[in-house]
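Run Homoserine O-acetyltransferase through structure prediction, thanks.
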Amino acid sequence: MLKGRVFEHYNEFQLESGQYLPGFQLFYTTWGTLNADKSNVVWVCHALTGNAFVKDWWDGLFGEGKTFDPSKDFIVCANTLGGCYGSTGPLSLNPDSGKPYYHAFPTLTNRDVVRAFDLLREHLEINQFKVLVGGSLGGQQALEWAVQHPGVTRQLVLVASNARQTPWGVALNETQRMAIEQDVTWQLNTDAAGISGMKTARAIALLSYRSYSAYNRSQREKSLERIDQFRAASYQKHQGEKLAQRFNAFSYWHLTKMMDSHNVGRGFGSVEAALQRLKAETLVVGVDSDILFPITEQRFMARSIPDSNFQVIRSVFGHDGFLLETDQLKDILDNFLQKKQQRKTWIPTVF
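Sure, done. The structure for Homoserine O-acetyltransferase is below.
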C-alpha cells in the first residue's frame, strides 16, 4: 500500500542564496517493503508540477508486475521544497512570523532541495539506493544528488533532462514569469495571487512541452469553414485552467527559478568535471522531438558520465514524451536494469 508521511526538520536550513529556512517539512510517499539489508530502494524525483504519488503520473512504470514493482522494490518519492503538495513552500506558515511566506519565500536551488532530500534519506537510515530516477526537473535533481554524493545510488536514470539549464530554458521560464507579473493580483499576499497569470504561463510552457507535430495531430480543425473558436485555442485555455485547480503561482514562480539556476558544475570548475564524479551505472534517455531539453543535452551528459548508456524515445509529443511514451521507456528501462545489451544511440549535433 502506498503511504504518505511527513519528515520534519526543525533546525535552521541554510540555502545557497545566503538565505535560510527556519526549518522545513517534506511530504513523501513510500510503496512496498524495505528489505532486511535495505538494498531494494527506488527513489523517484518528480517533475515541475508533479507530486509524491508517482503512480498518478508514471503509472506505466510503477505497480505490480511493472518495471518498478512494490512487491520487490521499496519506492520513495518526496515532494520538492518550494512546491505545494505538502512540503514547505510559499504558502506554508513561516515559523518566524506565524504567517504564510508568500513573496517572502527564499530562493531555492536544486542543490538545496537535494540537501533536504538527503536529510530525509538519513532519517530513513538508507545508505544507498538501488535506483535513483528522475525526469525533467526531477532528472536535474537526481543528477545533482549523484554529483554531490557519488555513492548514493548504484544505478542512476536521467530522463529528458540536462546538466545545466540553457539560455533557451531560462528564456522560456522568464517569459512565463513575465505573464504572472502582468496579473494585477500578483503583488498581493493571498493564496490565489497571480493565478490568472499562471494560466497564461502554463499555456506558454505547453508550447515547449509538446511539438509542432503533436499539435497538428491533436488540435487540427476538422472543418474547413471555421474562422474562430479554434480547438488549439480552447486547448491552451483548458490546460491553464487545469493547472490553476491544483497549483499556485508562487510555487510555479520559485520552481521555474530553481530550474534556471541548475548547473552541476557550480563549485567544480566545469560541468564535465562534475559529471566525472559520478560512480553509478547511468542511463540517460532523451526524446527525439524534445525542444525544451533537446537531445543534444542528453548526449552531452552520456558522453561525460563514466559508465553511461544513452537511449532515445521516438515520439511526436516533444518533451512530454517522457510521460506519454511509457511503453518505449519501459522497454529501455527493463533492458538497462536487467543488464541486457543495448546499443548506444548517438544523434548528430544540429546547430
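The chain has two domains: 3-166+262-337, 168-260.
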